[in-house]
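Sequence, please.
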């Protein structure tokens, strides 16, 4: 089964250019929100050195970042909804599946390029770990494209001695 899913992923068509533009812009906004955010504090409490997490694309998920994209003309509300980044409650209230999450970009290889197609989000929980519902901890946005790999550039490094597979992106950051 795993091999057939892998082959199916390889055959998928490249995402539309507009999707790639919007998702890259979203990453830029999330990434710029990371320093001095609750996500940076969470990363430090988890033993992740914040500047290193930031270097690998870590961001702070919040609907305000996406609404700022709209206000600045970088994306339309409908596009952000279509790609699963925000949802609406009525005409004026918005939310995001990445709200209050430490975010990380996920990439998929198309031809010779690694393209950003998705995000991982780890819920910011400052209480006792055992009290946090496990189903709330991790989230991947359903953009309609493959989930992807975090920090895939290491796969291209010929000097890399070994690759360590982790259960989640938060583990890879540590």
């Amino acid at each position: 089964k795993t091999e057939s899913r892998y082959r199916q992923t390889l055959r998928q068509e490249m995402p539309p250019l507009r999707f790639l533009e919007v998702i890259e812009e979203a990453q830029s906004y999330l990434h710029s929100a990371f320093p001095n955010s609750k996500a940076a504090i969470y990363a430090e409490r988890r033993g992740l050195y914040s500047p290193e997490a930031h270097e690998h694309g870590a961001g702070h998920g919040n609907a305000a970042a996406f609404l700022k994209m709209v206000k600045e003309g970088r994306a339309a509300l409908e596009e952000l909804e279509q790609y699963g980044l925000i949802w609406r409650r009525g005409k004026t209230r918005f939310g995001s599946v990445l709200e209050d999450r430490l975010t990380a970009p996920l990439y998929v290889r198309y031809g010779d390029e690694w393209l950003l197609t998705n995000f991982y989000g780890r819920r910011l929980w400052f209480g006792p770990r055992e009290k946090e519902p496990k189903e709330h901890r991790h989230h991947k946005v359903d953009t309609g494209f493959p989930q992807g790999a975090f920090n895939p550039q290491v796969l291209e490094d010929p000097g890399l001695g070994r690759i360590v597979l982790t259960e989640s992106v938060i583990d890879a950051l540590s």
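Residues 17-32 form the longest helix (16 residues).
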